[in-house]
Design a protein that fits this description.
Chain A has 718 residues and is of the alpha/beta class. Chain A has 25 helices and 30 strands. Chain B is built from 4 helices and 5 strands. Chain B is of the alpha+beta class and 142 residues long. The chains are: A alpha/beta (718), B alpha+beta (142). At the A-B interface, loops of A face helix 2 and strand 2 of B.
Chain lengths: 718, 142
């Protein structure tokens, strides 16, 4: 048992005539849970502090004059608890009857009806009939707390889970209890809206249908939905979600699917509420080809023949004239097949997943990944003594990690936050270092005390006395966890930044038992996976250099043809070549660089000079409008695959709804193109592609769909 | 032999003078027993608002799975039913329906009811999917 290992004392007690041994300090409720004895609850939640407010969980304890709430009473040696006596049953019935006096019983129109704890507990333990004949209380239905969260006060049973979530978990204290006694109600502060990154979690916490999602409201009843265990497609955390689809036709909501290593059971509002895009009527549903200057719908065969022919002709002109752009929003399988297509059928190594310039930083970061420099995990926040964030606004880049950091601070970990402006998390930090952008290297040197605090202060603009506080904290820490922005690492200073981090690691992990873990922050869903799959200039899958004999041999054994060794072009170089009219063909998968807020026009101009442009995407984006052939691909909700999150965890997505229109998953599209280019690919399902990935990517060598399972696994080097 | 012929003709003649069992449908329609359960109708409240709240319980209870409901919210200026929710789409596939009346059983607001309306015939399968336009009783006063 866990308790025995950590040397805690054990307590043996009897619940319903059965003995159970649990660590001292366990709640009766949890002890009963171990025996499989169910005790109904409303206000109690595993992630929140017990308050014993709803009295639903009261049980009889021998020797005590009155029943006690099992969610707020700790076990004692020799305690005799009874949960299934007629007295307890009567008390539970009474509690439910009282709760139902102020509950409207409008279950047929309530979104919760069918998956409602109050409904379930009433069926199991409640009275058969109501004795209440008076008029029920009435309020305006529903009250919008924000554009996303609605409150139905008639249904609220004042368990205060939502209020406690805002206090204990998100820390933004947005919801409060107002008034007292029977007049109590939940509300935001007067005149304010529920303005939180995590407001949607309160909807899932609510044990009745009082808090409602404006996105999901009235969209489906629980029995009409089927859930698929998937991964949130909106940022690099990769929170585990259940994608609920109604009648297999439309995605209606995302629910949290707790993964204790990744999301701790929470979702951010961006992840929870941006669930409607797979249903959009604006989706591409048929391939388009340019005829007489207009994009016209064509059949798949015609479109694929055009693509294959166009790419073949361009590749014949020279491998330096074709290039492919993968995407941080596509699966590993798809990015992998894109690079395989280019490296086999087209003989080109010009592959990337962005047009952004990276000034050589990408090579440094690739090398760092290859050697296993990045070893930190999100869940290391639960053990680290010092957490150092550099150059990332975590609340926006990786919203759920924001909660992990707040939890760590609450536990007593020291948070050192280095960011040019005072972002929200900086207020929770013990040490906030607002440095001048571009001086990250000097800042780290200062923290590692390899330059003096004064010198670092001169470079970074951070007061020397602040910088001087850091080295001691790092020296004292048993475990230091560093979150460093991936954008910085990919930047020109990437090389020097990594060197500085290595020096910091030597300083912070110099003592015995000390360690420093580093985790890169990639805000986009599958940036990590795109890099892992070899969508980096000059790197094969697994960060192996082009021209590396050993790598080429292993890859050749699997691919049965030699991978291209042509000199690669980065996205930036491809864009420059395109602007000069030197790109014969480009294949862009799941990326819309033209819509970027800055520099989109230049990209559009360059792409319009590409001899043959293919865009595979879900919507007719501005980039797709420039293409010669547009291929409609599936969203994440219609296909199988894997995504690799910012902490290198490979997780699976699964299809939740039927494929819209004539769309196809990108891995199918790429296989079809490869077949037309004379390649013998025989992938029946995404899993087949993954098996091949595991064979040619050393970091993925020990992974397969079965071992990844529901919770995902981190890849490892060596 | 003659006896047999007369006997047989006697039966025929007897039936000529008996009351007819067939009626001249569709000019004449047979009266149904009062509790006959045929086609569904959706009822209205006395003030003309729809009774149906779009809860989908009928669809959940339907053994033939022939009911499809999509709900939406009543809004200012577009109120269809009392309360917050109404059925935006309500469809019954009459070919699939087995007229068991479980939908009527499940309905918490007594909105759907099986009436003795048995003339459900058409020449196109699509037309057997009855929408709200055909199911709901006319608005009082037109």
């Amino acid at each position: 048992m866990i308790g025995e290992e950590s040397g805690e004392t054990q307590v043996t007690l009897t619940i319903d005539d059965r003995q159970v041994t649990v660590p001292n300090g366990t709640l009766i409720l949890k002890a009963a849970e171990q025996l499989g004895i169910e005790i109904p609850v409303f206000c109690y939640h595993d992630k929140l502090k017990s308050i014993g407010a709803c009295r639903m969980c009261i049980v009889d304890v021998e020797g005590l004059p009155k029943p006690v709430p099992s969610c707020a009473t700790e076990v004692k040696e020799g305690m005799v608890v009874r949960t299934r006596t007629p007295e307890v049953a009567k008390m539970w019935e009474g509690v439910l009857e009282f709760l139902l006096v102020n509950h409207p019983l409008d279950c047929p129109v309530c979104d919760r009806g069918g998956e409602c704890p109050l409904q379930d507990n009433t069926f199991k333990y409640g009275p058969r009939d109501s004795r209440f004949t008076g008029e029920k209380r009435h309020f305006a239905k529903p009250v919008p707390l924000s554009a996303l969260v609605l409150l139905d006060r008639e249904r609220c049973i004042m368990c205060t889970r939502c209020v406690r979530f805002c206090q204990e978990i998100s820390g933004d204290e947005q919801l409060k209890i107002w008034d007292r006694g029977h007049g109590e109600y939940i509300d935001t502060f007067p005149g304010q809206t529920f303005d939180s990154n995590f407001s949607g979690n309160t909807i899932e916490l609510c044990p009745v249908g009082a808090l409602l999602s404006s996105v999901f409201r009235f969209r489906a009843r629980p029995w009409e939905m089927k859930g698929a265990a998937s991964i949130c497609p909106h940022c690099g955390v990769g929170c585990n979600i259940r994608v609920d689809a109604r009648n297999n036709r439309e995605v209606v909501r995302f629910l949290s699917r707790e993964n204790a290593e990744v999301d701790d059971g929470w979702l951010c509002d961006r992840g929870r509420f941006d669930s409607d895009f797979p249903n959009s009527g604006a989706r591409l549903t048929k391939p388009l080809a340019r005829k007489n200057g207009e994009l016209t719908p064509v059949e798949w065969d015609e479109a694929l023949d055009l693509v294959a022919e166009g790419l073949r002709r361009a590749a014949e002109a020279g491998p330096d004239q074709v290039g492919g752009l993968g995407s941080p929003w596509r699966t590993n399988e798809e990015n992998y097949l894109l690079q395989k297509l280019f490296r086999t059928a087209l003989g080109s190594n010009s592959l990337d997943f962005t047009f952004d310039g990276r000034g050589g930083g990408s090579d440094a970061i690739a090398e760092a990944f290859r050697e296993g420099f990045f070893d930190g995990s999100i869940s290391d926040t639960t053990t680290a003594n010092v957490i150092f964030v550099l150059g990332s606004d975590i609340s926006i880049d990786l919203p759920v990690v924001d909660l992990w950091l707040k939890k760590a601070v609450g536990r007593g970990a020291k948070l050192i936050y280095a960011y040019p402006t005072a972002v929200e998390l900086a207020q929770h930090s013990q040490l906030f270092l607002p440095y001048a952008p571009g001086s990250e290297v000097e800042l780290i040197e200062g923290l590692a005390a390899s330059i003096s605090a004064e010198e670092a202060a001169a470079h970074t603009g951070v007061p020397a006395e602040l910088i001087a506080k850091a080295p001691q904290a790092l020296m004292d820490a048993r475990q230091t966890l560093v979150f460093v922005s991936g954008r910085l690492l990919e930047d020109e200073i990437g090389h020097r930044l990594l060197d500085a981090l290595r020096r910091l690691r030597r300083a912070a992990a110099s003592g015995e038992g000390q360690e420093m873990l580093v985790c890169a922050v990639f805000p986009d869903t599958n940036t990590q996976g795109a890099m892992d799959m070899g969508l980096l200039p000059g790197r094969y899958p697994g960060y192996r250099r082009i021209g590396d004999e050993l790598a080429m041999q292993t890859i050749e054994r699997t691919w049965l043809t030699q991978p291209a060794s042509a000199p690669p072009m980065s996205g930036e170089q491809m864009l420059a070549a395109a602007a000069e009219g030197r790109m014969q063909a480009m294949y862009i998968m799941g990326l819309d660089p033209v819509s970027r807020p800055v520099g989109g026009e230049e990209i559009a101009e360059a792409l319009s000079k590409v001899g043959f442009l293919v865009v595979a995407d879900t919507f007719l984006t501005k980039t797709a409008e420039l293409a010669h052939v547009v291929l409609p691909s599936c969203t994440f909700a219609e296909k199988d695959g894997t995504l690799t999150n910012t902490e290198r965890r490979v997780q699976r997505i699964r299809p939740a709804m039927r494929i819209a229109g004539e769309c196809r998953p990108d891995w199918v599209i790429l296989s079809e193109i490869a077949r037309r280019l004379g390649m013998e690919w025989s992938y029946g399902k995404a899993e087949d592609v993954f098996e091949e990935i595991a064979r040619v990517t050393p970091q993925y060598a020990w992974l397969d769909y079965e071992s990844i399972g529901e919770k995902g696994l981190q890849w490892r080097t060596g | 032999m003659i006896r047999e012929l007369i006997k047989g003709l006697g039966v025929t003649i007897k039936h000529v003078f008996r009351p007819r069992v067939t009626v001249q449908y569709p000019e004449v329609k047979r009266e149904m027993p009062p509790r006959a359960r045929w086609r569904h109708v959706l009822l209205r409240h006395e003030d003309g608002l729809e009774r149906c709240i779009g809860c989908s319980l009928c669809a959940a209870n339907c053994p033939a799975r022939c009911i499809y409901v999509e709900a939406a919210e009543n809004r200012e200026g577009a109120r269809y039913s009392p309360g917050e929710r109404y059925a935006k789409i309500y469809e019954i596939n009459m070919i699939r329906c087995i007229f068991c009346g479980y939908c009527q059983d499940a309905c918490p607001v007594e909105a759907i009811i099986l009436r003795p309306i048995y003339d459900i015939s058409d020449d196109d399968r699509e037309d057997f999917i009855y929408g709200k336009d055909r199911l709901i009783v006319p608005y009082p006063g037109g």
